[in-house]
Amino acid sequence: MAEANWYVVHTYSGYENKVKANIEKTIENRHLEEEILEVRVPMEDVVEVKNGTKKTVQKKMFPGYVLINMVMNDDTWYVVRNTRGVTGFVGPGSKPVPLTEAEMKPLGIKTENISVDFAEGDTIAVVAGVWKDTVGVVQRMDFGKQTATINVELFGRETPVEISFAEVRKMS
Asked: How far, in Å, CA of 99 to CA of 162, rounded?
């Protein structure tokens, strides 16, 4: 079986949730659960201030777009492309281009499970990136984004910094 990748589908603005529901219904009806694995409308929490009160609301990260994790073949392409509200796949011409690892990381979509040998409270050393050669204590871990938050000393004060799991190692 071919490998599943994440693809971006362009929709009419405001139809993202309807497209998601329609595709999920079609997956169920045509028994495509093995080929179209997940349909997502990426959301983010935004704090809005109205009449002096703060309110946290969810907004679409990419209005007009839906992400689909699927095995690309003629059947799946046809099902998605002919869903009401879909204008097409993102990519040159009619050829869909899958998202790369780097493009998916900021969306919080993990493609592989990284097992780490450290936990909150452990001292770790940063071995790559901007904070290379920095040592800090893990304050929080986010397995969805595959990051650890550590406190580093910056200008004489403790500052929280988010570091990728791949850039750190546990101090012995």
From this structure: 23
CATH class of segment(s) 123-170 = mainly beta
CATH number of the domain located at residue range(s) 5-107 in this protein? 3.30.70.940
pLDDT digits (tens, 9 = 90+) for 27-63: 999 988 889 888 998 888 888 888 888 888 888 888 9
